[in-house]
Amino acid sequence: MELPFAESYRIKMVEPIFRSTREQREQWIKEAHYNLFNLKSEQVYIDLLTDSGTGAMSHNQWAAMMTGDESYAGSSSYYNLKNAIRAILGFEYFLPTHQGRAAENVLFSVLVKPGNVVPGNSHFDTTKGHIEFRNASAIDCTIDEAFDTESLHPFKGNIDLEKLESVYSTYQHDEIPMVIVTLTCNTSGGQPVSMQNLKDVSRLSKKYGIKVVFDSARFAENAWFIKERELGYKEKSIREIVAEMFSYADAMTMSSKKDGIVNIGGFIAMKEEELFQNASVFNIMYEGFNTYGGMAGRDMNALSVGLNEVTDEHYLENRVKQVEYLGNRLMEWGIPVQKPIGGHAVFVDARKFLKQVPKEEYIAQTLAIELYLEAGVRGVEVGTLLADRDPKSGENRFPKLEMLRLAIPRRTYTNNHMDVVAVALKNIFDRREKIVHGFRIEKEAPIMRHFTVELERID
To answer: Which molecular-function annotations from GO does this UniProt entry contain (predicted)?
Structure first.
């Protein structure tokens, strides 16, 4: 008999979590104005809001934190991280930042000007926010298969080359500062980008003289899918695949809170010294001196270890299989999800789940609140609220995908927790026809509104 799969780690420390009653949750979510970001952590039983900074660090990472060098300039922790980035990702120059959106802020301050266009594969909220904040436009060039949740295309994060070349041929060279490739593509369901697509995007961009920038928050998960799904990579190591992936990029931003397996931190890495020097000016202004940026030395040490651990195949197998486990449980009951299951989260197709709720009443947010009320599980809407309003018309943007994202923290929950999430959604699915109304906005910010929006229920 074949041995069953088991986690590649054992638990050394635990944190108690509180199971609330439905009555408590109804009061709490009302006080939070039906915004799950406004809940206190102790009001949540299983927290799948994000996989960003919520994972469990290893004993080696905690040990590395104890030897962090907190020197203002030239700390050994900076050089530990610099060496890890050079060895694993292949970039000579890097700047530490306090997290991924800070990396975007610094890099885009150099590259993005008013009137620019930035093509890419379904830009995530902070990426699009930083582009539009600079009075530029993000253009989605993702393949059409990404928006069909039933399609089993293995690389739904791919960029459509015809769409990309149409952008390149329509706009002037100086109007396109870069193309952004998000690995894996979060907005389309944690979907990977193939190596062939990375090659083709690089080749096409060089033809037009456009920089290629990777949003690399989940680069290791992307490498895992290349190894599992793309011809010619089965026998390659994750490290070899990662090295080839980044050979096609001119620069990268990183939210280290994902595939760095740390609680805080990020960085920009570059191959050109000129770009490094220009970005350094803004990094010093916004983040801190170049050898610490927005990070403590102990966090840089933990990140240097995390980059090594995340490229271990045993770690990645455990990571991806847990996400797949939850996805399979939901599919067994006919619950509509983005297929195939992505690397960091299960994305529930809220539009197919709650067919009676009008799109103007924030379908995915409605489903997210139902899940919280059912079992104290906090997910997040990736739909109309996140899409924000069109900066010119002021009207809601209704994206092609209206999703409830269940992002699973790394090395944090067991499959028993996944079973609770699955059964909770099954209970809602069984009574879905009774859910006919959602919410209206009472108060919203002018950009990235979903973090602070206040809603009221439509009876």
So the answer is: carbon-carbon lyase activity
